[in-house]
Amino acid sequence: MENKKTNPKKKQGKSLTKRITGWLHLWLGLVSGIIVLTVTLSGTIFVFCDEIVDFCGGSAKYVEAPANPKKMTPEELLVQFHKQVPDRKAFYFDTYKDAGRSFRIASATQPPKDKTIEKAKKKGRGPRGIFAYHYLNPYTGKVLGYTKSYEFFYVVAHIHAQLLAGKFGKTVVGIASIIFFIQLISGLMLWWPKKWNKTTRTAAFKIKSGTKWRRKNYDFHNVFGFYSLLPAVFITITGLIMAYKVLTDLTQEAFGGVADAHTIAEKYEPKFDPEKKALSFSDFVNKNFRKFPEAEQFRMSIPGNDSATVYHVAAAKFIGLKSLVNGKTMETNKYTGNEIDYPKEVQMHEVIEHMNFDLHVGYWGGMFGKIFTFIIGIICTSLPVTGFLIWWGRRNKSTKKNKEIKNVHQHRKDSHHEQQFV
User: Pick from 278, 138, 168, 222: which is nearest to 390 by CA?
Assistant: First the structure.
């Protein structure tokens, strides 16, 4: 009986689904890589904006309180500020319960008066000026120092949201964010082993030691990409909610808010009455510090014109550029100082909006939330880079291999010709 040799089973290649997924993952990544890197890096930098702004304030944040401390009123301090820095216009101030803290003013440079600029400003397109924080001695009104870190983070935030390119930039960022979301899902599909065993588990969850940089880069992309997947998806979704009005409205409706909250709110706001006198800024400060005895900081917006009837105020343990710890923000009646009683759905709109922002930037968990979000941001920023290096390495390897095969064929051809002439 003739013995039949059994051929070993051919090694099975990737499935059609994985090949298509791999192709999409590669080319979507190459197309959107620079945008995703820019957006994730700027967002990661913004996470610790409050800590950096405070650090940049330096010693100007503090003063030596006199024996009988009596602070100047906010109105008096604002007058002193504009005398010393006449080229800037204040738009809100921060005052502190601590007698040793200075008075802080947020301001912007005023653009030169020009007919073209004035027309643009009326249409809401005028130059906004350069932002800065100035610190004043609350007892003398002297400017102690300033920091333009406010301007830096304003620019960083707008790079993150719109690449400093207005509506067009916002559209580009939105599309890149959708692509990144698809990248995360397709990355999970590519990461998922065909069979689960000890070898595949080790490769999926650990970075192999003792390997060359290309293998380490591959492991970093896959392993850390997997570990950051869920929070990265969550951050991307909250970003998309802010980027697209349709998603914003759906989120508001789903959680008890209302889409057209600002239109509804106007009906409950006081009408301008030139016969009525607005409360002083000092009255607002004192009233809110009494109302919130645990608050250490109070912030108040400075209205751009006399016809404004609503003052935006906040009282909390800490108030940053966009964060608030253990406190409350309020829209208040400028004639009475009382919080405006908006309908529940309008109030929920603000709660949902702030909560979504806090979830996006890591403010949900204090310092832990910031550190966690920062780490996820660093990993997400690295993914386009490590992914590009994987593609570039394979491309060069393939080119090198093809060149070697071509050289072998050429060598054989030359040898054949030599034998013909022997």
Answer: 222
The secondary element (H helix, E strand) that includes residue 183 is: helix 166-191
Averaged pLDDT for residues 174-198: 93
Task: Please tell me the distance from the alpha carbon of residue 218 to that of residue 205, in angstroms, as a whole number.
Answer: 12
Residue 75, token pair as written in the block: 């109105």
Nearest to 176 by CA among 46, 31, 41: 31
Buried-state track 253-282, b at ≥16 Cβ within 10 A, e below 16: eeeebbbebeeebeeeeeeeeeeeebbebe
pLDDT for position 410: 47
Task: Output the pLDDT for position 195.
Answer: 87
DSSP structure class, residue 60: G
- Cα-based distances in Å from 57 to 135, 138, 156, 250: 8, 16, 19, 40
Local structure of 421: helix, strand or coil: coil
pLDDT digits (tens, 9 = 90+) for 394-410: 887 755 555 554 554 44
3-state secondary structure of 28: helix
Fill in the DSSP letter of residue 365: G
Q: Encode 108-132: b = buried (16+ Cβ within 10 Å), e = exposed.
A: bbeeeeeeeeeeeeeeeeeeebebb
For 389, phi then psi, to 5°, come to -65, -35
Q: Name residue, tokens 């291999």.
A: 401
- pLDDT greater than 50 at residue 69: yes
**Structure token pair of residue 149:** 């870190």
- Residue among 319, 326, 320, 330 nearest 288 (CA): 330
Return the pLDDT at 119: 53
Q: Are 72 and 80 in contact (CB under 8 A)?
A: yes
What value, to the nearest 5°, has the Cα angle with vertex 297 and ends 293 and 299? 115
What's the whole-model pTM score?
A: 0.86
Closest CA to 313 of 346, 283, 270: 283
Residues 175/237, Cβ–Cβ less than 8 Å: no
Residues 246 and 258: beta-carbon distance below 8 Å: no
